[in-house]
Design a protein that fits this description.
single chain, mainly beta, four-stranded antiparallel sheet, rod-shaped
């Protein structure tokens, strides 16, 4: 009888799943709303992407401008953040949306548009020098509570509207006392205290 000796060299085995695991980068994909007016704050209802962590920060950045930091930043999920930006007096145009999560940074280039207040029309566009309470509707965009409305003409004192009601970002109602005022064309001016 011959003696057979088996030698086990190792009990370790390995198997490879090639490309089976992916490490992804922090990503910002979209922002809602994608624009706001430089007359006040805007609430961001959804900043979407992937890899968001608690403690993430958000900012709007633009070359030559001071960054606008996000406030009340809340990471709802690893894919969604809500926050607010104070756009008061900020430069109009496109801004980058920059998210920092831990030591990682992701940007959505030109992802947010800062717009300015714009007055498009007034209705009715005329009144009489005998009107003590001429009511008018102004239409445009970017109107905010606290807006001041004036009729202005060179060499004349402004006619400041009373009963100013901002009925949304696109409409204002107000009244003017036109009694005894100079006839002719006057400029309609809406101001809010922000840049415009």
């Amino acid at each position: 009888n011959a003696l057979v000796v088996y030698s086990i060299l190792s009990d370790a085995f390995s198997s490879t799943l090639s490309g089976g695991f992916e490490i992804k980068s922090l990503t910002v994909m979209s922002i809602t709303p994608g624009s706001g007016y430089n007359t006040g704050p805007v609430n961001i209802t959804s900043l979407e992407g992937a890899g968001f962590l608690a403690g993430s920060t958000v900012a709007l950045t633009r070359s030559g401008e001071t960054a606008i930091p996000g406030t009340s930043v809340s990471v709802a999920y690893s894919t969604q953040i809500t926050c607010a930006f104070d756009l008061t007096g900020k430069a109009t145009g496109y801004w980058d949306v920059v998210l920092t999560s831990d030591s990682l940074v992701s940007a959505l280039p030109a992802g947010f548009l800062v717009k300015s207040l714009a007055l498009a029309s007034i209705s009715p566009g005329l009144g009489y020098g005998t009107d003590q309470a001429h009511t008018a509707d102004l239409y445009g965009e970017g109107f905010v509570a606290g807006a001041v409305v004036n009729l202005s003409r060179s060499g004349q004192s402004d006619i400041t509207a009373t009963g100013v009601t901002v009925a949304g970002s696109a409409r204002i109602t107000c009244s003017f006392d036109l009694t005894g005022r100079l006839t002719g064309y006057w400029d309609v001016v809406v101001s809010t205290g922000g840049a415009g």
